Amino acid sequence: MSANRIKHKVNHVSLVVDNSGSMRQHAEQLVRVVDEFVKGLQEESDRLGHETRISLYAFDHKVQNLVWDMDVKHLPSLRGLYKVEGGATALIEAAVKSVDDLKNIWEGYGEHSFLQVVVTDGEENASGWAQSGRMHTQMSTGSGKAVLTDWIGRIKGAMDDLPDHWTSAILVPNSLAKRTAQEYGFPAGNIAIWDADSSKGVEEAIGTVKKAATSFLRGREQGVRGTRNLFTMGQDLNTAEVKANLEALDAGKYVLVPVDEQAPIRDFVTRTGHTYTTGCAYYELSKREKIQGGKQLAVAEKDPATGRMTGKVFSGPAARSLLGLPAAEATVKPGDNPAYTVFVQSTSVNRKLVPGTRLLVML
After folding, report:
1. pLDDT confidence of residue 4
2. How many whole angstroms separate alpha carbon 185 and alpha carbon 183?
3. In the 8-state DSSP scheme, what is residue 351?
4. What are the residues whose beta carbons fall under 8 Å from the beta carbon of 73, sequence distance 6 or more?
5. Crossing angle, helix 27-48 and helix 201-221, to 10 degrees?
6. Which residues are CB-neighbours of 16 under 8 A, at least 6 positions away?
7. How do the residues of the chain divide into helix, strand and coil, expressed in percent and rounded to 5?
8. Contact 99, 168 (CB under 8 A)
């Protein structure tokens, strides 16, 4: 006679952070916002009843494990652990080590999922330094190319072999680095660009990671254990959460207007016969956007079979948190959700609308 056993959800989060010399300007802020990220993981895990464990890695030309698979409730701070000592960027080696290490975790009991997020402000130039004591970019052309080719093969192999319950993502400083990350095997939807030159860049980057991790944890409640679209917004919305947390707007207090031309938002609203006031119009999230803190959000119901909006719109103070958007400014792109479309409040009179979308106007 066998006893019943609770099959709990276990999340293993690995944050792999660049600590090469160029990160010195961000070091103090990085410690603070990573601590906030860990606190967010604690709160969301408690709310959902999950066990979440975290590993932290730092890399320059060396790769160091700072924290290994620790319950997030027991990690007080990154302060004293993360230090920038200078050095180059063994990006590939760090990503591969994180994956290899986590693959050693036994998954016999519980329902496990793995999330790896790499944050870098530069590009690969030093993987293999631990073996040779030299950066491959400083070797002879043939030798350096051979080392880099070997490491690219390793990371492609690691990414190709990841099971469905693994998610691997990366934040990079520019579009060239994004293309390189895709060549390494990171899915396009799991690559985000952050502003490594801005004083607010680290806060924005970790805010992006926090939103993505929140979405990841909530997706587990819907049976999703891995994703190739981590840095998107709205893909995990479901009817139960929307109706429990948001208010259905009175049908007579708004209108959904098809956008037929690329016009400034104020001109478009008045041309369609409505009065424009600042904040009355919400654009459809159809591409990558930077959303400022304080902007209100709404979601419109769609017919899952046709993709057409039914006219029912929900909004309220909880919309940002429900969509995993932090209170601070964050850059997001729309997720693919068959049941809902996200709308974002605009306070600019000159925002150019995207033809083929819809505009939500509050009357």
Report:
1. 63
2. 5
3. P
4. 42
5. 20
6. 56, 57, 59, 94, 95, 98, 116, 117, 118, 119
7. 35, 25, 40
8. yes
pLDDT at 1: 43
Query: Starting at the edge strand that comes first in sequence, how are the strands of the sheet with 340-345 ordered?
Result: 247-248, 309-315, 297-302, 340-345, 281-284, 358-362, 254-258
Q: What is the pLDDT of residue 282?
A: 97
Give the list of residues 6+ apart from residue 224 with CB closer than 8 angstroms, or none: 236
- CA atoms within a 13 Å half-sphere pointing along the CA-CB vector of 126: 19
CB 68 within 8 A of CB 55: yes
Q: How far is CA 126 from CA 90, 136, 140, 171, in A?
A: 4, 6, 14, 18
Please tell me the distance from the alpha carbon of residue 287 to that of residue 182, in angstroms, as a whole number. 19
What are 55's two structure tokens?
Answer: 């590993």
The segments of the chain whose pLDDT lies below 50 read 1-2
Residue 283: the pLDDT is: 97
pLDDT of residue 183: 95
For 1-52, how does the pLDDT look when each residue is reduced to its tens digit (9 = 90+)? Answer: 445 666 789 999 999 999 999 999 999 888 988 998 898 899 989 989 999 9
Picking from 291, 306, 294, the residue whose alpha carbon sits closest to that of residue 338 is: 306
